[in-house]
Amino acid sequence: MKVGILGGGQLARMLALAGVPMGLEFVIVDPKPDACAAGLGRFVQADYTDAGALDELAACDCVTCDFENVSADALEALADRVAVRPSAVALAAAQDRLFEKNRFAALGMDTAGYAEVNSRTDLGSAVERLGVPAVVKTRRMGYDGKGQMVLRDGEDLELAWRALGEHALIVEQWVEFDFECAITAVRTADGDMRCWPLSRTWHRDGILRLAGSLAVPGGLQAKAEALVRRLAEDLDYVGGLTLELFAHGDRLLANEFAPRVHNSAHWTIEGAVCSQFENHLRAVCGLPLGATEARGMAAMVNFIGRMPAPEAWLKLPGLHWHDYGKAAREGRKVGHATLNAADSAALKSLAPRLEGLLDADLLGELDSALGEG
Amino acid sequence: MKVGILGGGQLARMLALAGVPMGLEFVIVDPKPDACAAGLGRFVQADYTDAGALDELAACDCVTCDFENVSADALEALADRVAVRPSAVALAAAQDRLFEKNRFAALGMDTAGYAEVNSRTDLGSAVERLGVPAVVKTRRMGYDGKGQMVLRDGEDLELAWRALGEHALIVEQWVEFDFECAITAVRTADGDMRCWPLSRTWHRDGILRLAGSLAVPGGLQAKAEALVRRLAEDLDYVGGLTLELFAHGDRLLANEFAPRVHNSAHWTIEGAVCSQFENHLRAVCGLPLGATEARGMAAMVNFIGRMPAPEAWLKLPGLHWHDYGKAAREGRKVGHATLNAADSAALKSLAPRLEGLLDADLLGELDSALGEG
After folding, report:
1. Is-above-0.80 flag for pTM?
2. How many helices (H) and strands (E) does chain B have?
3. pLDDT tens-digit profile of A263-303?
4. Closest Cβ–Cβ partner in B21, B291, B293 for A321
5. DSSP labels, B113-125
6. Per-residue pLDDT reduced to its tens digit, B40-51
7. Rounded to whole angstroms, how far apart are CA atoms B71 and A76?
């Protein structure tokens, strides 16, 4: 079976690494000559709208994406020729933060207060209504903290308008939360659906730094599963998806969703029976889903900018190294490591040895999330 | 870091799949155009003695092999230019069954009785001394049951001599055993060494059919580790190796060893903290070794000749599919599946669902090896 992937970054790379053992072959399309998934299949260096590239994708058994900002038009044209999973409609639903929030609201999911902003006046009245601090974001094309600013006072409004005012915007209320988490799920074309254990997530400067299959208060898992199920069924979704959430007491606020494999669930490679990458492929290829149960407990550390030298860390029992083979660049996700242990106590006793890979405050957060072990 | 591999079969393929996430790159040399590891690195289709291929290998950081019958001369020439691990000496030690047995004996390891055979007269006196049944094998180039015959009477001797008499031969005494097993170990250049839990193994027609990290009587693990350690230290071995053993009561007889990653330990991909493939690469690249502890319990089924359709089997929780991407051919290893479960009881309850993948007699052997669960 041949799978086409639009995008050749680390997500495509990890998809291919999960798919090759299953006998799948890949056609990977990316305009960048140094796309890090290029070596794991037939690589077509071309724009996503290139006719030759689309012909190669159309000759696959199915097509999927490693990022959500693929042109919906290109995808819809492709969908006339080959199964595109998730669908162009599902991708479009995640491409615009306003439509995304409107959908959450329509599905009865709690969100932070938000307002559409199309003018300087809109911006002022949105902040007046929602209060400060608030966050202004471009409705489209933002990721890893790009295209967003925090608003605290009138001066921030001026700066934000100057920086982002040419785009369609959304203002979101600042959310008080106990912690951030994300639920990753996978759904087949005939509606079979599985969820992995919730990931706890920690961001810095808008970029995910730390995530893991760490304990959350009892009821939240079922609540998160109900939310992601509602969303996936509404979109008739096929493949893996992640819904990012704020937890506050026993409430979960929907923040955003990603119609693809997601960084918060990279720990599933070693920390779950079947990883998000394998199950995404199983779903888009029409194969039965694998079990999503956790295997022990896992914490994942992102490497931003450049890879550390691995020698010292490989000595840690249960540490798994993931170097995406990307050139170093500030703010770029270049790899991750997952520390996996049999249970919470074992992970807690190993976690301090991540010092040097993880800032002290995040080490503290991890230790505290691991509770009494 | 760039690793050269002589041989581009499924072992090279699984090495590359373990190494790519670690940021390793591969140069894979194989004379066959359809070598199944070809897509996972730079593929050089050439004979192992081809000057251009050797130049490409010499430009790597280290070189290893995916099979043991590489010309020792070619390897030694290469070793003047780049680190070859394991060494040509270690490979040569496994290439000749007589020298292999002599080494076992010199190291004080028990083996079946054996005799060197260079003439029809030698064959007769060997069988006279060792008794029937006995097994005659070519000293070199045998694998998967090829180049060997069972001797039960005078007629068998005639047939065997006609079929194999042009080769240097060894006759081995028929061994009574309770079960077959194999110990896989990995050793670094500075002598750090780890062993995985013993694999129970089951062969049919000389080909491994079933293996797994199943329970063995208590003392055997330590005994097997002592044997493989003695062998690895004697050879100043670097990389992964497997020693195949016959267990009889509390005795272990050394049968043969493989100076490479080995089929009996494929279950380590999902069933151990660090797989034999990753640890082999860590050792040959001079990186610290990963933990070799089991993760739950695993049974691996080989697919011989052709791959089954995966759909029915992927439904089994904890089943992992490995399709080597090879064309179907009688007697050829084309893939395997590993069934992994939290413990012996869980594996025992799932194992009957392998019916159809595994012959009834092997299903029975597996069930019985899993004991009371």
Report:
1. yes
2. 13, 18
3. 999 999 999 999 999 999 999 999 999 999 999 999 999 99
4. B21
5. -EEEE-SHHHHHH
6. 999 999 999 999
7. 55
Residue found under tokens 């062993």: B195
A294 inside 8 A of chain B by CB: no
Among B22, B196, B336, the residue to mutate for chain A (most A Cβ within 10 A): B22
How large is the ipTM? 0.95
Domains of chain A: 2-84 (3.40.50.20), 113-173 (3.30.1490.20), 179-369 (3.30.470.20)
Alpha helices for chain B (secondary structure H): 10-19, 51-58, 72-79, 88-95, 97-106, 120-130, 154-164, 219-234, 268-271, 276-284, 311-314, 344-350, 360-369
Q: What is the mean pLDDT of residues A157-181?
A: 93
Residues in chain A: 373
- The answer, for A311 touching chain B at a CB cutoff of 8 Å, is yes
Which residues in chain A are closer than 8 Å to B17, comparing Cβ atoms?
A: 17, 20-21
Please give the residue that has the higher pLDDT: either B215 or A3. A3
* The predicted structure's pLDDT at residue B168: 92
Q: Chain A to chain B, count of Cβ pairs less than 8 Å apart?
A: 87
Q: Does B290 contact A at CB distance below 8 Å? A: yes
Residue B17 is nearest to which of A21, A39, A291, comparing CB atoms? Answer: A21
Which of A23, A323, A324 is closest, CB to CB, to B325? A23
Q: Rg for chain B (alpha carbons), in Å?
A: 20
CB of A272 closer than 8 Å to CB of A127: no
3-state helix, strand, coil split of chain A in percent (to 5) is 35, 30, 35
Residue B142, pLDDT > 80, answer no
Query: Considering CB atoms only, which of B39, B307, B314 is closest to A287?
Result: B314
| CA dist., res. A350 & res. A110, Å (int) | 37
The answer to whether B323 faces chain A, any CB pair under 8 Å, is yes
